[in-house]
Amino acid sequence: MSEALLGGIVVFVLATYLGASLIGRVPPTLHTPLMSGANAVSGITVVGAMLVAGAGFGWLSNVLGFLAIVFAMMNVIGGYTVTDRMLEMFKKAPGKESPK
């Protein structure tokens, strides 16, 4: 096993553990704003996954890159859907006026 692969595995495991522990500690009231902000990060993930999938490192990197693209796009679409629902909650109902 090469040093670069071992280093990549270590970084992946640590990032997974850190991400899971941080998200697990977020109170439920902050989940929607965080989902909204995560769309930018997922967009960067999509670009990185496209680079990996198209780099020609072999069939395994193509498959893993494709799966990363699919999961990151699911996250982006879900984030925008949740954000849209959240923003709909703050719109005034038609025909109602605010109290003066």
SSE topology:
Elements: H1 3-24, H2 31-53, H3 59-88
Task: Describe the model.
The chain has 100 residues and is an all-alpha fold. The chain has one domain (3-88). It is built from 3 helices and no strands. Helix 2 (31-53) packs antiparallel against helix 3 (59-88). The chain starts with a helix and ends in a 12-residue tail after the last helix.
Question: How would you summarize what this structure contains?
Answer:
By secondary structure, this protein is mainly α. Helices cover 75% and strands 0% of the residues. The protein has one domain.
Distance between the termini: 71 Å
What is the gyration radius calculated from CA atoms? 19 Å
Low-confidence stretches: none
Helix content: over 70%
| Beta-strand segment tally | 0
Mean pLDDT: 82
- The tally of helices reads 3
Instruction: Note the beta-strand portion.
Output: under 5%
SSE order, one letter for each helix or strand = HHH
Largest sheet: none
3D shape: elongated
Considering the chains and any ligands shown, give keywords for the structure.
single chain; 100 residues; mainly alpha; 3 helices; 0% strand
